[in-house]
Design a protein that fits this description.
By secondary structure, this protein is of the alpha+beta class. It is 22% helix and 37% strand. The chain has an 8-stranded mixed beta sheet. Strand 3 and strand 4 form a beta hairpin. The chain binds zinc ion.
Length: 134
């Protein structure tokens, strides 16, 4: 298991890139819009993991509401798993609450699911299924 990325909620990707690119020296690997979650996403690799900057497309999205309530900041931690469906079944059987209860398509078309922060000691946890090479 490894950390795939850290999701950081920002008001504006273009404003925050000055810090991440010029300040920290990270490189922008790409941006995309994830319609399902109402966010624009910018991915910046750090070793094997990435920083995922999340800019809401409107205030009426999960990340938009997060920023309105708590301001910009660390939004979630994403772990990579081999088999998302079986991991979710296992977590459910242990009483862990899932945010939506089923996998969805996240950035790069990968299967993702979120665990409820109440079941993860106050942290929003995302799980992403490892990309199949075949
Ligand atoms: Zn994420």
């Amino acid at each position: 298991m490894k950390i795939d990325h850290l999701g950081i909620a920002v008001k504006s990707i273009s404003d925050s890139l000055a810090f991440y690119r010029e300040g920290l020296g990270l490189e922008l690997a790409g941006t995309e819009t994830v319609d399902d979650q109402g966010v624009r996403v910018a991915l910046l690799p750090v070793g094997e993991a990435r920083i995922e900057l999340l800019e809401p497309v409107s205030g009426e999205t999960p990340v938009g509401r997060f920023i309105a309530k708590r301001g910009e900041g660390l939004h979630h931690i994403c772990y990579e798993v081999d088999d998302l469906a079986s991991k979710l079944d296992e977590l459910r059987s242990r009483g862990v609450r899932l945010l939506e209860g089923y996998p969805r398509r996240g950035a790069e078309g990968k299967l993702v699911a979120f665990l409820h922060p109440a079941s993860a000691h106050g942290v929003l946890v995302e799980l992403v299924e490892k990309a199949r090479t075949s």
